[in-house]
Amino acid sequence: MFTRLLGALAALLITFVTPALASTESEAAQAQLLDLTTNPYGIAALVLFILAYVLVIFEEQLHMRKSKPVLLAGGLIWMLIGLAYLGSGKQDLVKAIAGHTMMEYGELFLFLFVAITYVNTLEERGVFMALREKLVSLGLGYRKLFWITGFIAFFLSPILDNLTTSLVLGAVVMAVGMKSPKFIALACINVVVAANAGGAFSPFGDITTLMVWQKGKLEFAEFFDLFIPSLVNFVIPAAIMTLAVPAITPDPHEGKVRMKRGAWIVIGLFAATIVTAVSFRNFLDLPPALGMMTGLGYLGMFSYIFKMWISRRKFENRDDILLDSFKVMERVEWDTLLFFFGIIFAVGGLGVIGYLGLMSKALYVGLGPTAANTIIGLMSAIVDNIPLMFAVLTMDPAMSDGQWLLITLTAGVGGSVLSIGSAAGVALMGLGKEHYTFFKHLKWTWAVALGYFASIWVHMLINADLF
Fold first, then answer.
1. pTM for the whole thing?
2. How far apart are CA 145 and CA 132, in angstroms?
3. How far apart are CA 228 and CA 19, in angstroms?
4. Closest by CA position to 222, among listed 406, 394, 396, 390
5. Rounded (to 5) percent helix, strand, coil in the chain
6. Which residues of the chain have pLDDT under 70?
7. Residue 456 in 3-state DSSP?
8. Contact present, 428 and 436 (Cβ < 8 Å)
9. What is the DSSP letter of 259?
10. Rounded Cα distance, 411 and 233, in Å
11. Helix orientation angle between 127-137 and 263-282, rounded to the nearest 10 degrees
């Protein structure tokens, strides 16, 4: 049974994490880049990134959406890179890297766009509200619901990927805690930590784990040595935060909650969309985002057929029953999608300039692998973990299997320290809006950091023979 489950995980998860692996194919191109780390253009780019990041941190105080400063910074950083390469004879190289980054973002955008559209459709059909009532009817208090959603996220993430897991469980959390903003904030933090931790112990659970496996640094089965450290990473902050979760039971909704017509079909279409994305990648060798867009076509055709079916029948509340797929798409959180664009290009630009490689060399040569891997994990809360792992793999420091597992663990869970440190956190901020914000997550950063360091200690203890 375990073998079959492992095979299912492999088939499903490779679909969602493969696109970013193309970046590892550009190592030869990276070696030809100019070192701009001490160049005025490079220094100006770094200052721009820091300023944009500060504006993101103070989003709530400034009332300025987080996508705006990073969009501007991303474009200006690449403009500075373009100016630095004028007359160098290497403009085509920079153009190719920029095009490749654009392609990676395009695939991420399409995947996330479809996933969010389906989540919004499920919410519109009343699926999450019905699930809320089911959970509430069991007499479960907020603290039990806090742990249930956390464990579901932890074990669902290696199957569904941490991004989609956080969106689905985040919607459930907001439905369950609709009258308790405090519960929503804490449960969202818990979901982000659990989803990131769950993806760290599988070679297919996160982009960075797959990058390490594809590079041949670790054997397939070795990744599962991280299960207990990953569990510790999730459980410790959850145990601390649960003390702050309101010790009350949510009131049931007045009247019986029913899902709207077509809800079960939408659930089936969402599952079919995931299967289609898997099939496109595994059997047709096509981008999984194309499979996701095909799934969006499923939803569009169903909404049309459903509209025709409704029009031939007499319903008193016809407007409430109808499903308009385009109206659902209008509810997509564009701030989140545009933030991804800005941060991917800004960080990618810093990589082209040479800052990521410079940082990696300074850490591994100056501090040693254990300290370096720990620091890089913490840095992934600020800088995306994919370019960080790419920089480590490109440098290829001489490390034991235990150290490669350590960087896999830290790069996977370090992003949980801040809400903007992982795709799961950023997506959930877009979904949760005022309920889950940067500062609400920051309030519990110390607890998440305790789980982070505890997971490292547990890994070095139980996997000592691998160092």
1. 0.69
2. 10
3. 28
4. 406
5. 80, 0, 20
6. 1-31, 60, 159-161, 204-205, 207, 210-211, 214, 253-257, 282, 314-321, 384, 386-387, 390-391, 394
7. helix
8. yes
9. P
10. 13
11. 110
